[in-house]
Amino acid sequence: MEQEARKKRVLFLRKLILFSVGMAVLVPVMISLLLAMRYDRAMDALNKSREELTWYKNHFDARQAEAETAVAEAEPAAEQPAVPEGGMGNGAAEAPSAEEEQADADEEEEWDGIRRVYLTFDDGPSASTDQILSTLSDYGVKATFFVTGKPDKRYAQLYNRIVEEGHTLAMHSYSHRYSSVYESLDSFQTDLHKLQNFLYDTTGVWCKIYRFPGGSSNKASSVDMQELIDYLGRENIRYFDWNVDSGDASGSIGTWQIADNVIRGIPRFHNAVVLMHDAQEKRTTLEALPMIIEAVQEMDNTVFAPIDEDTFAVHHTVN
Ligand SMILES: [Zn+2]
């Protein structure tokens, strides 16, 4: 009897020890995990606030630089050029590259004093197209969509909505596969006309504006890009690159960073062609769009426009 009771006590004690050891390990692990999660969340919030602050600061700098330029222009200055190089830009802007200076010099000749901002969306239509179009419509802004060929029925109404709401429907290759688009002049032609015909059948629009996948300065083409550019010329198709990159091609870019890239980039050009993407996963582009539009609408002598056949051609490859 006595032995039985002892055995039970020992068993109970053993269980108690095991339980205590288990808890001694588990509890600190759980607490560490919880703390780590809270730390992550706090860091996220901090980073977001920092991005937001930077954005406001840059936005403010840009407005101030613009105001100063306006004052300088209002004063009689006989020897000064009408608009100094990058004069409408903000103080924080880096020195313009040779490409940009060339573009500015080209632009200078015919500039009427109104800055034009061309928002362009590549790679659509997508699950984001409707929201992009609704935002544009809310603000009364027209833009340009460089689309690819998506024969799936659900996209047909999106191609049409782009057209119906007054935006420019433009081409960005049918397949967007570098390996086939840029395999040869032949494959480029085939892809181009497949898209042109597809868009005509879908919307009734005969598109004459093109953007090369990866831009005309892409390094992926097996064909000399000049050969493809010449071909477009013979076909009466104008191509457009961009001079303001939103940076949204990178998957991890935040809303504020996209807005900042665009809002700081625009004042550097008389004709600002802004590269953005119309794709399902680009949520931050959707969020940045209203911020961009509101900031641009506050800029003096600046208007939004869709690309058309008379738009100043922004090219990466200087011909
Ligand atoms: Zn693209």
Keywords for this entry:
319 residues, alpha/beta, TIM Barrel, 2 domains, six-stranded parallel sheet, two-stranded parallel sheet, 9 helices, 10% strand, elongated, binds zinc ion
Protein structure class: alpha/beta
Low-confidence stretches: 73-96
Dominant shape: elongated
Per CATH, which architecture of the largest domain?
Answer: Alpha-Beta Barrel
- How much β-strand is present in the residues? 5-15%
The total of helices stands at: 9
Q: What is the residue-mean pLDDT, rounded to a whole number?
A: 86
What's the end-to-end separation, in Å?
104 Å
The H/E string reads: HHEHEHEHHEHEEHEHE
Number of domain modules:
2
Helix content: 40-55%
For this structure, what is the CATH homologous superfamily of the largest domain? Glycoside hydrolase/deacetylase
Give the SSE layout:
Blueprint: H1 2-74, H2 98-108, E1 115-122, H3 129-139, E2 144-147, H4 153-164, E3 168-171, H5 178-181, H6 185-203, E4 209-210, H7 225-234, E5 238-239, E6 244-245, H8 255-265, E7 271-277, H9 283-298, E8 302-304
Parallel strand pairs: 1-2, 1-7, 1-8, 2-3, 4-5, 6-7
Helix pairs in contact: 1-8, 3-9, 8-9
Summarize this structure briefly.
The chain has helices at residues 2-74, 98-108, 129-139, 153-164, 178-181, 185-203, 225-234, 255-265, 283-298; strands at residues 115-122, 144-147, 168-171, 209-210, 238-239, 244-245, 271-277, 302-304. By secondary structure, the chain is of the alpha/beta class.
Walk me through what this model shows:
It is a single chain. The chain is α/β, with parallel strands linked by helices and 319 residues long. The protein contains 9 helices and 8 strands. Strands 1, 2, 3, 6, 7 and 8 form a 6-stranded parallel β-sheet that branches. The longest helix has 73 residues. About 8% of the residues have low confidence. Zinc ion (ZN) binds next to loops.
